[in-house]
Amino acid sequence: MTTEETRLAESLEQLADVAAEAGIDRASARDEGLRVAAALAEAVPGAAPAWAEVAHPGLTDLGRINEAFFDAASRGRRWRGAPTDLLQALVDSRHDRALDYAEALTEVASSAVMLGTAPIWVIANASAASGAYLAAARMPTSSGMPSQPTFPQPSFPVPAFPVPTFPGTEPGAERRLQGGIPGLGLGTPDTMRPTVPGPMDPSAATPATAQPAAQPATEPELPAEPERSVEELLAELDDMIGLDRVKKEIHRQVALLTVEKLRTEAGLKAPKMSRHLIFVGNPGTGKTTVARLVGGIYKALGLLPKGQLVEVDRSELVAGYVGQTAMKTAEVCAKATGGVLFIDEAYALTGDQYAEEAVNTLVKEMEDHREDLVVIVAGYPDPMVRFIAQNPGLASRFTTAIEFDDYSDDELLAILDSIATGSDYELTDEARRRVRHLLEATPRGPSFGNGRFARNLFEQAVGSHAWRLRDAKEPTRDELRLLTADDLIEQLDVRDDPDQTGADPAALGAEPDGEAAPGEAVSEQQHHTSATEPEDTA
User: Fold this and answer.
1) 538 residues of the chain, pLDDT tens digit each
2) What beta strand segments (E) does 17-120 contain?
């Protein structure tokens, strides 16, 4: 191992030791640490092989290395600015090792960004993550007031901007920190779209002589989104690029449920159709977007009272302690009641007692709320077959599977064009030819990002475009909006010869973003043929 790899291995071992002392399974803590490390190092050139040397010693196949690395990163992105699940469990139980665990996580974050030459925004992401971990772990003092959380002196290089002391004195301060570092303007960290730190907010620090802040006024409620009809929602589905098989099946489901409702209203017997669905397909094929539309369609049909989408994976259903998984799963189901619970990578709920407890609870909740809860499970085809087969209750409730095909080259180019148009850019003909060449040369394995590939390609082209115009004094409007073949040459060279740049060949297929806040998602695949800014999809 290199020095950097040894450091990551040691920080993971330290994390596991603290977890064991707190009564947490060492393997679960190590897995959580690996996901944090992958999420923070995702944009660091050459980090994947170094990470795999620690996570999967002896693994040499580059394709499998990248698949494991980006899978771990996708499962850890939401912890870039929020406490991890095991840390949150320790905090919630007022465990005296919560702070030790948070500090061990900061060491993992420090080690992760040293796996390669990290860009400045990656280091900022690691600072944001470390701050969120430490802030969450500051438990109330004997006086009932939260202690003042502060940053430790990080052991990795920090950008030349001030790191503030967190306020931490008002109720709910720990939760507020999950949006990023106050005063730095980081928000939710995003490795592919770096945020330039702004000036420190004077209100971020609370001087000792300051008077207690007044309670903020109640925020006005946002206006409710206008109700949309089934026809409008189906039209939005039909406007999505590709997905012909998906569109046909959703239309069929709507017809079945509509007739079932009409027969019931007419006093006729109607067989109860299962509303739960299985989505099978590779990442980036629009599963989350379609799940959100299904929730809206079911609401418009009068089958669901709210139609909201709650998206989770195994980590949000399974707890770190035996016996807590059932409560955690039930809480998630309660949040989704009235709408759709979307479980991504549902096949991860197999193979251990925690997964079995989660599935048993899920089946019970589906029965208890069969009139106002729809569950959609998603993942790769073969693992999903094994997931459904593990419990008879699942097999009887999930009777409809919808397959999401990979996008063709023409469809991916159309997605890229729509993303560019929605951002006031345009690809030249030469750039479009280069994109086609790139798509033809890109293998379509399980780690291929589909719509995410197009989104990442666009974002990197925009970065190259900005660099190309860095010395332009008065660029023309066309120069500001046209993406040329030169803006795509760097990505193409990385694909053709990754060893020249040190970048990972699969980096273009990796999802750039963590979980987006509701209403703020920006998609890697454009589902309209218009210039509307796309919505996030899975």
Assistant:
1) 788 889 999 999 999 999 999 999 999 999 999 999 998 988 777 788 899 999 999 888 877 887 788 878 878 888 888 899 899 889 888 898 999 999 999 999 989 988 887 777 678 788 888 888 988 887 553 334 444 444 444 444 444 433 333 333 334 433 333 333 333 333 333 333 333 333 333 333 344 444 444 444 444 444 555 678 999 999 999 999 999 999 999 999 999 888 888 888 888 887 777 889 999 988 888 888 999 999 999 999 988 998 899 999 888 898 877 678 888 899 999 999 999 999 988 999 988 888 889 999 999 999 889 888 999 999 888 888 889 988 888 888 898 899 999 999 999 999 999 999 988 999 999 999 999 998 888 888 777 888 888 888 898 889 888 988 988 889 999 999 999 998 886 443 333 333 433 344 344 344 433 333 333 333 333 344 333 334 444 4
2) none
The answer to whether 1 and 53 have CB atoms below 8 angstroms apart is yes
Cβ proximity of 361 and 326 under 8 Å: yes
- Judge whether 526 and 415 are in contact, CB under 8 Å: yes
Q: Are 325 and 318 in contact (CB under 8 A)?
A: yes
What does DSSP assign to residue 346?
G
> What number of other Cβ atoms are within 10 A of residue 275's Cβ?
23
Tokens linked to 510: 């990796």
With 0.90 as the threshold, say if the pTM is over it. Answer: no
CA 200, 202, 204, 208: dihedral to nearest 10 degrees? Answer: 130
Q: How far is C-alpha 97 from the chain's CA centre?
A: 28
Contact predicate 442/453, CB 8 Å: yes
Question: CA–CA separation, 535 vs 527, rounded Å?
Answer: 8
Helices (H) and strands (E) in the chain, counts: 21, 7
Check: CB of residue 129 under 8 Å from CB of residue 79: yes
**Pairing of the two strands 482-483 and 340-343:** unpaired
What CA–CA distance (Å, rounded) separates 335 from 348?
21
Taking each helix axis as running N to C, give the angle between helix 451-468 and helix 489-496, from 0 to 180 degrees, rounded to the nearest 10. 120
Q: Rounded to an integer, what distance in angstroms lies between the CA atom of residue 61 and that of residue 478?
A: 44
**What are the backbone dihedrals phi and psi of residue 468, each rounded to the nearest 5 degrees, phi first?**
-65, -35
The pairing of beta strand 374-379 with beta strand 400-404: unpaired
Helix (H, G, I), strand (E, B) or coil at 462: helix
Decide the pairing of beta strands 374-379 and 277-281.
parallel
**Beta carbons within 8 Å of 385's beta carbon, 6+ residues apart:** none
